[in-house]
Amino acid sequence: MIEQKQLLENAVSTALNIANDLGVSEAEVALGKSAGISVNTRLGEVENIEFNHDGAMGISVYIDHRKGSASTADLSEDAIAASVKAAVDIAKYTSQDPYAGLLDKKYLETNPLDLDLYHASNKSTDQLLELAKQCEDIALNSDQRIVNSDGAGVNSHTSLQVYGNSNGFLESYASSRHSLSCVLIAQENEEMQRDYSYSSARDMNDLFSAKWVAEQAVKRTVERLGACKIATQESPVLFCPEMASGLFGHLVSAISGASLYKKSSFLLDSIDTQVFPEWLSINEDPHIKKGIASSPFDNEGGRSIQRNIIDNGFLQTYLLTGYAARKMGLESTGHAGGIHNWFVKDTGLDLAGLLKEMGTGLFVTELMGQGVNMVNGDYSRGAAGFWVENGVIAYPVHEITIAGNLKDMFMGITAIGTDIDPRSSLKTGSILIDKMKIAGV
Question: CA-CA 20 to 30 A from 46: which of 12, 207, 277, 431?
């Protein structure tokens, strides 16, 4: 890895030097290399083995606020030179954009941390296949209602990212990602249902066991059997952690620079405005060791720092790249490439406690469709889950639609559970919302 790191950094440095020789004062180069293996088994047989080894260099130059970009997978000096020249030629014909350019030097990360993100697996292909077979075998023999499988899979990938620009920044970091998943089909009478479970981590040793993944997949799948529709009504809605992270994902979109400067967000001009209940806070920490969304710097070399996103219900910051910040007359926040490990404050109740607090209502475990209007916050999506009566799950439900407005939904959060999903970069427990419209029969 050290040898490859030096090779890629030299390639980026070469591209920057060539750009400088051509009289380009502002240039940036991003180079990524990834390698890995994906294996899948189905009903005990090998279904797929796929190796990948990908990589490319992206070059952008800025000439008189005109941007030109080109890329190459060939890292020879001649190929790099040709790509830089192509980017320069393209820049001559693009429109001027007064906000185009590199991130200001004052925002660059000057001391990148080692966040322990790289843990290559030493497992052989046969061992990975055996892990997938083991997971699927446990699942198929756990419950007689599990009648088929869509397979189990193991993925193991590593990558090396290098970024440099003509403001003197040139850094790199390696990372890894491993996962284990299982998809099952259950049947009872004439009804069939499908569901899955998975585990994901930077370190293969940190994955949940094959037994855990299999048992979770079985539980989720058989619990869906006997699902029915419910009457159209208005009731409290509890989102499981996987679905709850999606709700906060809409917050991410709404406060991201591109949505804001395009005026396509329902949270325009909302800094220092209350958007959640006063007890709710969200903290971001980009420097968690082995964190799923940890990063020593963002995609334009920007400094990523720990910060409050929501403090006692009030929005503290937007999520801005250098370009968005200049366009809006604000400060860059180091979010080129996305968010970094969000932690949502809970109210101290586990799932059983949340169900009891809800009393009677809908527990959502699956969402379908993309019915979210980010301009006005209108929310309408297909859903499935469980109907809850007197704090106890009564029966599974499906083929329903839940609707509301994200502003009202955010302010209507009455509790957040301690049942945090550790696999997500946005760490939240289940979310209880006081009321939403449910369309059924």
Answer: 207
